[in-house]
Amino acid sequence: MKQSTKEVFPLLHLIQLEYKRAQLKTLVFSSMLAILILIFWCVINKSGNPVGYLNYRDAFAEIHFYVSATFSIITAILITKVVLEEYRNKTISILFAYPHPRRRILLAKLIFISMFAFVTTVIASVGIGSALVIQNDYIHAIPEEWTSSMLLEEVLRMLLFATATVGISLVSYYIGMLQKSVPATILTPFIINLIGSGFYYNGSLWSVILISIGWVLVGLILASISLKNIEKADVQ
Amino acid sequence: MSNIIQMTKVNKISNGKEIISNLDMHVKQGEIYGFLGPNGAGKTTTMRMITNLIQPTSGTIELFGQLLTPTSYESLKRMGSVMEYPIFYENLTAYENVIMHCEYMGFYDTKAIQEALEWTGLADTKGKLVKYFSLGMKQRLGIARAISTKPELLILDEPTNGLDPVGIQELRDFCQKLNREFGITLFISSHLLQEIDHLADTIGVIQNGKMIKEVSMSQVRSQVRDYIEVVVTDSKKASFILETKMKITNFKVMDGSTIRIYQSGVSPIDLSKELIDNGIGLASIIKKELSLEEFFLETIHKGGVPSVTSHPIGI
Q1: What is the predicted pLDDT for the residue at B287?
Q2: What is the pLDDT of residues A60-74, one digit of tens each?
Q3: Cys staple from B25: which of A83, A201, B7, B177, with CB 3.0 to 4.6 Å?
Q4: Is A60 domain-assigned?
């Protein structure tokens, strides 16, 4: 990034610094591993269904569920790395002594986390979905034709679920920050997905739209609550 | 000379406890200021207030002549700080840590970064992660990081922690160099006087959150008095003789056998003769200088030595 850009878009610069510092290598490796495992489970093993998938809708419902559940937890691990560890190692006191509003520093972290959640969810869904469609092209396990309207609907659902994953990640950020607790951060998306699993299977497109927007709103509200009063708070 | 840090009637109450009370402080531009006080006196809290990590409950802090508020980002750009037990990103190298710091500070000068690492003897640690550094190396890296942005004011909280005597001496020389060659104002805290008395131009003594004394060292050195210490068999009897026969009034009985005579113009020869003539056994008689340590101890315990006026510097 050029010097002038750094000054005009300080937030972008800070997001870039978060990326540099996060050293995503391990997390990217685990994400790729997770995608391979999910391809095995959802595509080859048909999510454990003894009779296999009856149609593409059922198959993609499984994929969306497993991808969202997996990557909201991987994002939670990123949250512990990027936010909680800074508090635990007290490096946050270095960041807060810099000539940037604290809100901007934390916002950069939240945007970075949200981007990670969204992008990994999309990449995983595309990867696993493609594997399913390609496999079916050869062995025709699903007694149904893959149509472009299906493609459109599943892409739409994928984007909505990725958005919901961002919202859920923000919620787990908020819950984890209450006590600066790693288990709370990682358990939150796990529990949310466990309770809300029906939503991946039975939801109409409209209900998915509403619920995704709902999660993002809840996440944004909680995130803004956590940023409130941060400027004047004492850092120990 | 103008003040680079000025704290006026600063109070800090945390969890209902008063940590800093009514603190006034004046750090002049270009000087080395020693901030002295026992552990738990409020030194770190004060320094965290200066670096904007903690907000005072009341009172004002001025940095570079400007009021410090939670949004004084320009002031923060002009200073560097090393807090007690310096903290780093342990999974990054020394160079990466300093680069990261400069990026956040908005200061881009790779030459200055390289210089800072060379100065602190860390230039050849490339590739070594900070988590494998010794405490002494971390202390030096803390300083390298703080000076990499060429600050006008450098804040060091207990910088000698974890350093060996050689390291302490190096640090002292280094601080002097920063101050003299680059004109950086240094604000150094310590709980040990001997660590900063040769370094500091001004010393502020803090205890229980209160600034007990702010005094310039040149003034202190000129005020530190000679005295004669005599060790006798009976200090009670000896003090009677000093008062009645030798007309000495300014002395102090330290214990059952030791007396210190502060009065000037007393000849040790006359003194020993007089004491022996009056049947008092004399074990030793030495001419001594009141050490700075004692001077400050006296200041802390008695709230001031009369011969040194408080706030002698131009306020």
Answers
A1: 82
A2: 999 999 999 999 999
A3: B7
A4: yes
Residue numbers of the domain that contains A165: 24-227
Classify domain B3-221 at the CATH topology level.
Rossmann fold (3.40.50)
Q: Which of A97, A99, A234 sits opposite B81 (nearest CB)?
A: A97
- Reported as a pLDDT band with limits 50, 70 and 90, residue A140 is confident
ipTM of this complex:
0.86
Q: Which residues of B touch A (CB under 8 A)?
A: 14, 48, 51-55, 70-71, 73-74, 76-77, 81, 83, 87-92, 100-101, 103-106, 108
Report the amino acid identity of residue B13.
I
Question: Domain extents for chain B?
Answer: 3-221, 225-289
Residue A174 lies in a domain: yes
From the number of C-beta atoms within 10 Å of its C-beta (0-12, 13-18, 19+), residue B98 rates as buried
Q: What pLDDT, in 10s, does the model give residues A12-30?
A: 999 999 999 998 999 999 9
Spatial neighbors of A133 by CB under 8 A, at least 6 apart, are A146
Residues sharing a CB contact under 8 Å with residue B267, sequence separation 6 or more, in sequence order:
none
* Residue A232 resides in a domain: no
pLDDT tens figures, B237-277: 888 888 888 888 888 888 888 898 888 778 888 888 888 88
Total domains present in chain A: 1
> In CATH, which of 3.30.160.20, 3.40.50.410, 3.40.718.10, 3.30.70.100 is domain B225-289?
3.30.70.100
